[in-house]
Amino acid sequence: MTIFKTFLKIANKYKLTIIIYTVILLAFSVANMKSSDNSMSFIATKPDILIINNDQKEGITKSLIEYIQKNSNIANIKEEEDAINDALFYRDINYVIYIPNNYRQDFLDNKNPEIKIKSTGDYAASLSEMMLKKYIQTANTYKKAGYTEEEIINNIEDILLQQTEVEVTSKLDIDKLENATFYYNFQNYALLAGCVFIICIILSSFKQEAIRKRTIVSSMKYRKYNRKMLLSSALFAIILWSFYIIISFILLGNIMFTKHGLVYIINSFIFTICALTIGLLIGNIVKTKEAVNGIVNVVALGSSFLCGVFVPIKWLPDSVLKVAHILPSYWYVKTNEALKTMEQFNTETLKPIIINMGVVVIFTVIFIIINNIISRKQRKIN
Fold it and tell me: What is the pTM of this model?
């Protein structure tokens, strides 16, 4: 009971630090929510294209131009190279199509006339290129099959000019799940920093020479001492975790009352237990309070950067991800990322999530074992 009271008394002195970590978590979460798009509808994107036609606008040439016009926004730019280059640079247009002189006749004569292009190289330009290639390949297919020009145009109009209705069949609220994933990913930093800082500070207080020797010569066995320190640390960690969970219900709303929300909560609880064992392990190694801030930066910030908290996992290079595999934060974040795209909950979809959580549990057990070994050695009086 003495250890427990002392633990909470010291923790209370550093409540400002916990408040700072909480403010950081809230600030980034709210900023992310404000920047997210709340629309669930699908909007087809049309690229901005400039067509420079050096051929007569008839036959296959006319058909090609009409096809491009129906599937893009035709830009009104001076047909001068300087003006065109400026428009491309400033993204006023995405794609420029140069139809050469005598294109129609060369096409019908199987001369494979070349259509030159200029491009911004972005996604809209890629869409424009796909559209152009689709028309040309379809036209060439019919021509090789022996169709006349009129038949080629009619068949192209029947196939390519048909509009496809896009229906969004997913029931997921992508925006809310994105927000939830961001919040719980960033919770990795807040939980690690909070647990490691407070627990290390408290353990360093118990390591003062007089207190340490008194504990060693007492009748309390090291296993019992470790168990009490673990339980006291666990209570603090659970209180901190509960506080962050309550905040998530306030910020994220109804999504937390779904199956997704339940798994987010379970995943964060498992990671919280792992975080407190990390704090205990580091606290038994670190001897001075002055070193704690540096340790927090290395552990909390380092793992957050490496494991996809500050930078999404999909943007991290493979070399970084290979290193991240040896950190529990990676498996915690990986579960959160999987949840935001999960439509159904069954044995097959939950299997990778259970594996991720299991890996975090294994890390927790390893940290407890190492901590017991270190603690037993430290109880020997030099």
Answer: 0.63
